[in-house]
Design goal:
Blueprint (H helix, E strand, L loop, with lengths): L2 E3 L4 E3 L9 H9 L8 E5 L5 H9 L4 E6 L2 H12 L7 E5 L2 H6 L5 E6 L13 H7 L6 H11 E12 L3 H10 L3 E9 L6 E9 L7 E6 L1 E3 L2 E2 L1 H7 L7
Parallel strand pairs: 3-4, 3-6, 4-5, 6-7, 8-10
Antiparallel strand pairs: 1-2, 7-9, 8-9, 11-12
Helix pairs in contact: 1-2
């Protein structure tokens, strides 16, 4: 299925190694926008789904995305142009290192579903494996870029494997970026925690929120929390 239809926009993904998955949708729906971001940056755009979800959710006037893979970059551009928010969305064909060399803007919200690599992702598709390979974007590069690019009250929001959470927070702490909220994600009530949704800011909070999100109780029987999070996007919710 190359076309993926959401309530207010659709995504073509035939040229992207990384298809739309739960991780991107979770981050796009979860990323905090309480600070009313004027400018948003999506690092590693893929199909552009996260940037598009944030265009739908927020009033941000400038939503930039960054994609190094040429095919994915072209796909993102098409998806942006075919959306209701094409005037607010822009994709750069560049790597993070090039982008931070001459930063022109600060961003109130930076989001990333960074390519990470675990053994359970080894596939027969090299392009997909590359897209998943953590070397494509080490966490430290991402955090360092956020430190350079975030506005004073800006927020960095990511989704990463749960087992990397402690490591990620320790790195962030070195750049004086502190947790604002953490949501740990499980597929079902009985499976192990797979992902961490983490929001960071420059302001240290003593009692930040940590909660848990369970996606489904049985196959395709979604929890009220997951439905509440994604209902503005998925038709079936």
């Amino acid at each position: 299925m190359s076309k993926f239809q959401f309530k207010q926009f659709s995504i073509e993904q035939d040229r992207c190694a990384m298809k739309i998955g739960t991780d991107g949708v979770l981050l796009g729906a979860w990323a905090p926008i309480e600070n009313n971001p004027f400018s948003i940056l999506d690092i590693g755009a893929g199909t552009g789904v996260i940037a598009l979800m944030l265009a739908q959710r927020s009033n941000a006037e400038q939503i930039d995305a960054l994609e190094i893979d040429e095919e994915a970059y072209e796909q993102s551009v098409d998806n942006f142009e075919n959306s209701p928010w094409s005037d607010r969305l822009f994709c750069f064909h560049a790597g993070l290192d090039e982008f931070v060399e001459e930063p022109e803007d600060e961003y109130d919200l930076i989001v990333s579903n960074p390519p990470f690599y675990t053994d359970d992702y080894k596939s027969d598709n090299e392009q997909r494996d590359l897209a998943r390979f953590v070397d494509a974007m080490p966490f430290e590069d991402l955090i360092e870029a956020a430190d350079l690019l975030l506005s004073e009250n800006g927020i960095l929001a990511v989704i990463i494997p749960f087992k990397e959470e402690e490591n990620f927070l320790a790195l962030a702490n070195e750049y004086e970026l502190y947790p604002l909220k953490i949501t740990r994600v499980k597929g079902t009530p009985t499976t192990e925690t797979k992902r961490s949704l983490i929001a960071l800011s420059r302001n240290e909070k003593v009692n930040f929120l940590i909660d848990e999100l369970i996606i489904e109780t049985a196959r395709h029987i979604y929890t009220p929390e997951y439905i509440e999070l994604t209902k503005d996007f998925y038709f079936k919710m």
